[in-house]
Structure formats: structure tokens, C-alpha cells
Amino acid sequence: MPSEPLTVTLRVKRYNPEVDRKPHWQVFTVEGMEPTDRVLDVLHQAKWHQDGTLSFRRSCAHGVCGSDAMVINGANGLACQMLLSATGTDVTVEAIRGLPVVKDLVVDMQPFFAQYRSVLPWLVAADGDPGYTERRQSPEQRARFDDTTKCILCAACTTSCPVFWSNGSYVGPAAIVQAHRFIFDSRDTATPDRLEVLADRSGVWRCRTAFNCTNACPRGIKVTEAIQEVKRTILTDRV
Amino acid sequence: MSAGPDLAPAVRAAPAGTVYRGRSGQWAFIGHRISGVLVFLFLLLHIVDVSLINIDPHLYDEVHELYGNVVLRLFEVGLLFALVFHALNGIRIVMVDLFPGAVRRERRLLAAVVFLTLATCIPGGYVILLPFIEGTLTG
Amino acid sequence: MRTTGPDARSRRPRPSFETWSWFFMRVSGLVLVFLALLHFAITHIVNDVVETDATFVAERWDNPLWRLFDWTLLALALLHGLNGLRWSIDDYVRSPARRTSVKAVVYTFSGVLFAYGTFSIVTYG
């Protein structure tokens, strides 16, 4: 049975730091939507047909590139994954929190990526390994960090964290997830360096287990569990 | 659902900051912080009032009597709630830190924390307010 | 199966102050659950608050074990609360200069009260 077209009331928090003194809400009425359309489709309709100055990021539009994380009806998610059947026809979108707004829904991701880089998110092979041969591991060893390989660096977790909002110096869930991915990789040798970064003032001990990150992750990564594993590894000093 | 606004995009004044719609864990975190600060502030006050006993036991008694009046009894009930919630939620946090199983069941654990807080603090608060309820309150 | 790495990772990470502070919060917190709740139960539930007058305190502090109990409660609660407050200040006071001054005030105030409270418990009677 074909469903009746929906009329969506879209509220967008608009802010252009170069012009506006503070953010304001703009309301769009978008007609002809389907329950299987996504919030991103509504944003497209608003931008293409009503106000071309509306700014947001999106690239692949299929939940892989991680460009369009935003606060949708009060909680973080990807606009390209959030169906209207889940949000209803009243949709409110804001930029993700804790990062400087460049314009409307576009934030400056540099602080986020700086924290990502601080945990050495790359494979550090053993000394003297030129990398000419495969670095083999068993299925069990691979499974140890499988969950955290799913991260797409969309920042939905980090910008849902109350500690990150109040103090951007916290390295944040995403960086810890990325560190977890290498800490528990049997081929990697830089674990002590990563643990040293994460045991410091802005590291894992800042986590207050509020679980917003786990609830926000569009990939369903068990973020809090990963952070807790890193904490226990630092505490017990073994992997 | 709100009534449909005009088709033309309407610019409205921004309301004050929106609240992030986190789930129970976010509110447990906020409750833990607030209850912790309240108990700490009371502790500082409590050190001062108990230490009066060293200066003059009569002065201690005079100040101490204030704790028996209705307003401060209500305050003590509040303290009981803050203390018990902070203690039980603290146990929940330690469990979440130590056991992966607790991470997966944190919402049920929080429900247990809230239930146990109410189950102990409502009777406890009743006992504290008893002299007031029975009308035997003096001072 | 050949895997690389496991030997290199046995290098111990430097123990950090924040690790110990986190660990202390868990341990002191669990001890305080018993100390603080027992203390509250004795002074507010078992006895009515008006009964805990100077005579009550004097009788209790006749026993050095109760003094030890009260002092342990004082020390752990203050340190636990102070560290919690330090974490909150680190979170919410963002300007480094103001953070330092807020911490200085809080530490000094708590330090003085800790000394005062300890003095009261030890020297009473």
C-alpha cells in the first residue's frame, strides 16, 4: 500500500559566525516526503528548493563516510541514516556540540582530528619489520578488536559526550575507540605509547560512563565497553 | 505536531540552548555530580559545626539544636537522598568499570539504584521527619 | 602462526597521577559507602538528630575506635570530595588562570578544614 506523502516541519539552527551575533531557528515546510525518506532528503529539499544558503556536510549519503552527523531531535545521529518513519514529521536539526560552528550544520572538525591523531591511529610494526610479508593473525586475534574497526570518524560519539562539551581537551570516545582498535591488534607494538597518552590528564580517566557515546554511534559500536577495556588495560597493565 | 507555518521560511528568534536528549546514563552522570557537590558542601559545614564542641560544648549544643527544626530536617532528608543515591550509583559506576556484563546492563542497574534509593530514603525520611509529623517537635 | 609484537608490548606504561586518582576514587568510594551511610544511620535514624548533643559526642569519643572511625570518614570523604571537585573544575572552568585560582581557593579552604577537623577529633577531652 503506498503511503500518503508527508509534510515535514524542519527546524534548523542557523548560524553564520561572520554575520550573526547568535544562532537562530529557521523553519522549513517540506512537502511530498515519504516515511522511507531520510532527514538528509528533507535537508536537500530545503536547500535545493527553498534556501540555497543552508549549509551542511554530506558526501556518500549512505552512512559510510561519516560527514553528516548532527543533532537530530535532540540526539546525535547521521542525517543519511535517520528515516522519517523514526523521527516523525517534526524534525529539529542542530550542529553537533563542542566543536566551533563554521556555518549552520557545518563544524570545524580540526580539534576532533587533532585528538584522533594524538593516539597514534596507525599500525606500528615491530622494529626491523620492513613490511614485505603478510603480518598474520588468527581469527581470534582479529576478533579481539573487530568492533572498533567499524568506526567512521563521524564524531557523533565524541560530540554527544557531556565531558567533551564542557571541556574540549578530553580526547573523546572516538579517539579512544581508534586507539582500542590498535591496542588490541596483535600485530601492533605501540601499545605502551598509546596507553601513556590515554592515561594522562585528557585521556580515558575523563570518561564518566554517561553512555551517550554508545547510544549515539551510528555503527552500533559498543563505545563505552571499548573505553572500559582500555581503562582496565591501563590499570592492570596487560593486554 | 505543531501547526504548519507559512511556506516561506520563517526566521524565529533562537530559544535558549536546547537540552541534549541523552538517555538515563547522562542523567545519572549529572545526578552523581550534583549529589556529590551537595554532600561535599555539607561536609565542610559539618566539620565547622562539630568542631564547635572543642571551643565550648554549650555553643555546640546551641548550634546543634538548629538541626532539629523543620527546615533543617527537610534539608537532612535531602542530604539522605543525595548521599544514598551517590553511594548506590557509585557502586553502579564501579561495577560498570569492572565487569563487561554490567556495561551491557547499566540501564537495569540504574533502575535498581533509583529503586533502592527510594526504598531506603522514603522510610528514612519519614523517620527523620517523625517528630514533626507527630507534632512533638521542639525548638 | 607467526605474529609480531607481543614481546615489545610488555614495556610498562608510566604510572600516571590520573590513574591513581581514578583508582583512589573507586576504593575510597566503596569504603565510604559503609562509613558514611553507617554514620548517617547512627546520627539520624537510630538516634534522632536532637539526641546527638555534646554529651552524645563526648560519650562516643571516649572510645578511641569511634575517633578513628570519625577521622577516617573525615579524611576519606574530604579527599574523595576534593578530587571529585577537582575533576568538575577541570571540566567546567576552562580558562587556565581561573582554573588555577579556583583550585587554589578550594584546596586551601579544604586543607584548613581538614586540619581543623583533625585537631578537633584528636584533642577533644
Your description of this structure?
The complex is a heterotrimer of chains A (239), B (139) and C (125). Chain A contains 9 helices and 7 strands; from the N terminus they run ββαββαβββααααααα. Chain A has helices at 39-49, 84-87, 110-118, 139-143, 162-166, 173-183, 191-198, 212-216, 223-236; strands spanning 6-14, 24-33, 69-72, 75-78, 90-94, 101-103, 106-107. Chain A is elongated and about 60 Å long. The model of chain A has no long low-confidence stretch (mean pLDDT 94). Chain B has helices at 24-55, 57-65, 70-98, 100-104, 106-133, and one strand spanning 10-12. Chain B is elongated. Chain C is mainly alpha-helical. Chain C has a single domain (19-123), classed as 3 helical TM bundles of succinate and fumarate reductases (Up-down Bundle), CATH 1.20.1300. Chain C contains 4 helices and no strands. Residues 1-9 of chain C have low confidence and may be disordered. The chains are: A alpha+beta (239), B mainly alpha (139), C mainly alpha (125). The B-C interface holds B 33, 36-37, 39-40, 43-44, 47-48, 50-51, 53-54, 57-58, 60-61, 64-65, 67-68, 73, 76, 79-80, 83-84, 87, 90-91, 93-94, 97, 124, 127-128, 130-131, 138-139 and C 26, 29-30, 32-33, 36-37, 40, 44-45, 48-50, 52-54, 57-58, 74, 77-78, 81-82, 84-85, 88, 109-110, 113-114, 116-117, 119-120, 123-124. Strand 2 (24-33) of chain A pairs antiparallel with strand 1 (10-12) of chain B.
What proportion of the residues of chain A form beta strands (DSSP E)?
A: 15-25%
Please give the order of strands in the largest beta sheet of chain A. Answer: 2-1-5-3-4
| Tally of domains of chain C | 1
Largest sheet of chain C: none
Report the uncertain regions of chain A: none
Helical content of chain A (DSSP H or I, runs of 4+): 25-40%
Distance between the first and last residues' Cα of chain A:
54 Å
Radius of gyration over C-alpha positions of chain A, nearest whole angstrom:
20 Å
Beta-strand portion of chain C reads under 5%
Number of strands of chain C: 0
Reading off the top of the CATH hierarchy, the class of chain C is best stated as Mainly Alpha
CATH topology label of chain C: 3 helical TM bundles of succinate and fumarate reductases
What key phrases describe this protein's structure?
heterotrimer, A: 239 residues, alpha+beta, five-stranded mixed beta sheet, two-stranded antiparallel sheet, 9 helices, 30% helix, elongated, B: 139 residues, mainly alpha, 3 helical TM bundles of succinate and fumarate reductases, disordered N terminus
